[in-house]
Specification:
Layout: H1 31-41, E1 44-49, E2 55-58, H2 73-94, H3 101-114, H4 116-120, H5 123-129, H6 136-141, E3 145-148, E4 151-154, H7 156-169
Antiparallel strand pairs: 1-2, 3-4
Length: about 180
């Protein structure tokens, strides 16, 4: 599998002649993808409970959070970069079709938020593995609910985030969301 530059996939599924020789295993999220994550995660240097009641810190980091322990901005940035490696790898392993850099970045941002397990079992993954790229944005937008007090509830923040991820997947401007 090879990674394609975003100008090499046009109109979803058109065969291209030239592939970027960079191995897909070396691809990383773009700065635009990182900005999307930062915008929607926000950065809190002190631990807090997110809407799903998970102890969280920095840019959505959940693994090594210690209640009462503050971080510096530099540490929050470092932890984001470490966390991104995990989600980049998840997308590489689970989505085994050609992607352009915006599609890859969108899926990393999506997976950063919903988790590897949810991507693995999603209709979004099935659609992409069937190379139905045009259906992916609608599949991304479906993930707009969180469990609040035991019930699945549509959250405005998730609606906005999924719209931004869907637009990035399509290489369209998303920063107005």
């Amino acid at each position: 599998m090879f990674f394609k530059k975003k100008d090499q996939i046009k109109n979803h599924g058109v065969t291209v002649e030239e592939k970027n020789q960079k191995s897909f295993s070396c691809v990383t999220i773009t700065s635009e993808g990182i900005e999307l994550i930062k915008k929607f995660e926000g950065c809190k240097l002190d631990p807090y409970r997110c809407s799903a009641n998970v102890l969280t810190q920095g840019y959505g980091h959940t693994k090594t959070v210690v209640e009462g322990q503050s971080w510096s901005q530099d540490h929050a940035e470092e932890m984001l970069m470490l966390d991104l490696q995990e989600f980049e790898q998840a997308v590489r392993e689970l989505i085994t079709v050609d992607l352009n850099e915006d599609q890859f970045s969108s899926l990393v941002a999506f997976t950063f938020n919903v988790g590897r397990g949810n991507l693995a079992t999603s209709t979004l993954r099935k659609v992409l593995l069937a190379e139905k790229y045009d259906e992916a944005p609608d599949q991304i937008r479906r993930w707009n609910k969180a469990t609040v007090n035991g019930e699945k509830v549509v959250l405005d923040g998730l609606v906005r985030r999924r719209n931004a991820e869907a637009l990035l997947f399509q290489s369209k401007p998303w920063d107005h969301i």
